[in-house]
Amino acid sequence: MTTYALSADLIERYLCTRGSRYFRGQHDGEFFYVANTRPRRLHVHLGISRWHRDEFTIQVTPGCFFPAADGAELAELADSWNSRSRDVLVTVRGSSDPQRVGVVARSSRKIREPVAFDDFATYIDHSIAAAIEFFADLDSVAECPAEPLVLDAG
How far apart are CA 99 and CA 64, in angstroms? Predict the structure, then answer.
């Protein structure tokens, strides 16, 4: 079995095998794509930490922020999820707009030794599947606003 060091090439190989249209981030080892899942699209960020070159991170967020009034319910749902699941850690975070909050599902893993591609891909697939499951449950608490919360400045 061939093993690979953690690198931008390894992440890119994963994205290519999954047929994902992706974008490179500002730094080497950062990638972004949009997963067309139901009930909503999810933004998926895959990357190698700039500070710890052996740390690989997956972050999944919905393509919207939620009304801050739903923050307490979202936090309860995140806490409940985190007590049951170890695949992704879910947090509710503030935003630059005090009227909105964001939700992020995150997983990270140290990869110090070369890894088999299939093991690496399985880890990513399971993490993203867990995030999809969490965000599907989110609809019972909060929905993405139909109207944008940010006014058009044009």
Answer: 13
The reported pTM is: 0.87
pLDDT in tens, 22-52: 888 887 788 999 998 877 789 999 998 878 8
**Euclidean distance between CA atoms 108 and 140, whole angstroms:** 27
Residue 150 lies in a domain: no
Residue 112: DSSP 8-state: -
Q: What is the pLDDT of residues 46-105, one digit of tens each?
A: 998 878 878 999 999 998 899 999 999 999 999 999 999 888 999 999 999 899 999 999
Q: What is the DSSP string of 38-77?
A: SSS-EEEEEEE-SS-TTEEEEEEEESS-EEGGGHHHHHHH
CA distances from 126 to 18, 46, 119 (A): 13, 14, 11
DSSP state of 11: H
* Other residues' Cβ atoms within 10 Å of the Cβ of residue 43: 15
Q: Can you give the CATH number for the domain in which 24 is found?
A: 3.30.1460.70
